[in-house]
Amino acid sequence: MVRAAVSLRAPEGYRFSLRVREQGEVIAVGDGIAWIAGLPSAALDQLVTFEGAARARGMLFNLEEDRIGAIVLDAEGSIAAGTRVLSAETRLEIPVGNALLGRVIDPLCRPLDGRELELPTVTLPIDVRAPSIAQRADVHEPLYTGNTIADTMLPIGRGQRQLLIGDRGLGKTSLALDTVVNQGDDVISVYVLIGQRRSEITAIVATLRQSGALSRSVVVVAEADAPPGLQYIAPYAGCAIAEHWMQAGGHALIVFDDLTRHAQAYRSLSLLLRRPPGREAYPGDIFFLHSRLLERATVLTSKLGGGSLTALPIVDTQEGEIAAYIPTNLISITDGQTYFDAQLFSAGTLPAIDVTRSVSRVGGNAQVPAVAAEAGRMRLEYLQFLELERFARVGTRLEASTVAKIARGRLLREMLKQDRLSPRPILAQLGAMIAYNDGLLDGVPLERAHARLEDLQAQIAASSLTLTTQRTQWSSMLAQWLKAAEKP
Fold first, then answer.
1. Under CATH, which number does the domain 371-486 receive?
2. Is 397 a catalytic residue?
3. pLDDT tens, position by position, 316-353
């Protein structure tokens, strides 16, 4: 019998060597948490793979002496006690790049809009250190929202972190959407939805699509029935996607809607992992959790490309209580807050922004000098009007000058009212402020105020006026137009 010789030849470039790979075993699983025995060299935030048909992934989140707690990121139903666990020895990264524009994805970059997604080859870790002080530049460019109150009295600069705070249903999401819609092609927007109902998600995506803003935006979704692990990593994944354009020298805007649900998801995970609870049952490191996220929003120095990342985190309050744990944390982390008031909303003053309790700590540094000068005067007069109006409710007899100031204040309040998805260009806002400050709109009936502002906006758009035009020329042109509008 002749036996054929078999030649075992290694593939080119392959070298035989000893390979050591740790493996563990699932001892319990449930509620988005898997308890693992083994993996003696495991590290926090390290990825693991649960062997099986679904090849589910998890992230190590809690290290104890005899076991490890891991967040299950996907396919929890395929994991059972006894499932083998392999360490990936890497941390979670997400694909980034222009291929994501116009898409709706989950925090693991899986498409949710029913279309195939060719994943970009460039990836970034979802959780990184924020830029150091030496890598940061001052906020010096405005980011216009299209909303008169926000752009004049509470300005936002590129690289700023402006908190949107108030009870549910008062218009925080509407202002965030207006801001995304108002951006030009030079700003990429990332909208992160955390723990929202599917109907709310659908409405937001439809609004972005109808306005044409979706083509320059990325929507990251971890809906209400998603595992708490996905809700936990959602803002970090969105931030990594936005950082890609900042690091490339561009400008990005990210909306976290909202961090209240994110904190609740983290609290659920921590309690399931038996971490000691603190105030309101939140773990003690919740402040660090949000601060390391929001500190990633900044302006980079010119040596690093000069890119910027602006953050608009949203947080809910209960019955207007801003002294609750999560709201106070975020107020201390951010560069200002825009407060939405339930009483203003009920009175029909929309947007329901309470100027007295709102502040922008750095946005004024990015305001155009002409806008800053007019806005400062108008804000002071508006605050004085609010005090006078409260005083007038007592029923005291008022002087004629006080009555005139109250009339002007009511006109200003009417001018500041604005419907959602109806942005006003900054030139139109500047023209309206000059006209008001010069008294050119005095005597205009309240019901005619918006029509008069629309006429001014059309005249300004057709003129050669700019933000650097002399104020005397602005005042002269506005007086001429308003005088012509009064003629029958």
1. 1.20.150.20
2. no
3. 999 888 999 999 999 999 999 999 999 999 998 999 99
Polymer length in residues for the chain: 488
pLDDT of 1 reads 47
Cβ(96)–Cβ(122) below 8 Å: yes
Summarised one tens digit per residue, pLDDT across range 34-65 is 999 988 888 888 999 888 756 788 999 999 88
**How many whole angstroms separate alpha carbon 56 and alpha carbon 77?**
9
Provide the CATH number for the domain formed by 95-367 in this structure. 3.40.50.300
How many CA atoms, within 13 angstroms, populate the side-chain half-sphere of residue 155? 25
From the candidates 361, 379, 420, 471, give the one annotated as an active-site residue: 361
Options 3.40.50.11540, 3.40.720.10, 2.40.30.20, 3.40.50.1820; CATH for 23-90 is 2.40.30.20
3-class DSSP assignment, residue 216: helix
**Residue ranges per structural domain of the chain:** 23-90, 95-367, 371-486
Q: Is the pTM of this model over 0.90?
A: yes
Tokens read off for 269 = 């995970």
Contact (CB, 8 A) for 57 and 101: no
